[in-house]
Amino acid sequence: MKLAFSRMSPAQILVLTFLGLILTGTALLMLPWASTGAPVGFVDALFTATSAVCVTGLAVVDTGTRFTFFGQF
């Protein structure tokens, strides 16, 4: 039995890896202990995670004050 990744092109694997990292980061940023106040909304967490994975450095909330050490990590 062959692995599913062996039938995929390198571009498909890259896209799926990025998507997986972004969705995992979004879920982690939405956890209650990732933020200092109320939990971050889905869109803000998605944008922040996408920015982190793509290394753009953009943020819609102040990372230093809005997120705990866990959220910043």
Outline type: elongated
Order of H and E elements? HHHH
- Beta-strand content: under 5%
> Which percent range fits the helix content?
40-55%
Radius of gyration: 15 Å
Low-confidence spans:
none
Mean pLDDT, to the nearest integer, reads 89
Number of strands: 0
Largest sheet: none
Category by helix and strand content: mainly alpha
N/C terminus separation: 38 Å
Helical segment count: 4
Can you offer a commentary on this structure?
There is one protein chain. The chain is an all-alpha fold and 73 residues long. The chain has four helices and no strands. Helix 1 packs across helix 2. The N and C termini lie far apart (38 Å). The mean pLDDT is 89.
Quick structural overview:
Helix content is 55%, strand content 0%. It is mostly helical and 73 residues long. Helix 1 packs across helix 2 (42-53).
Short key terms for the protein model shown above:
mainly alpha, single chain, 73 residues, 0% strand
How do the strands and helices of this protein lay out in sequence?
Elements: H1 10-29, H2 42-53, H3 63-66, H4 69-72
Helix pairs in contact: 1-2
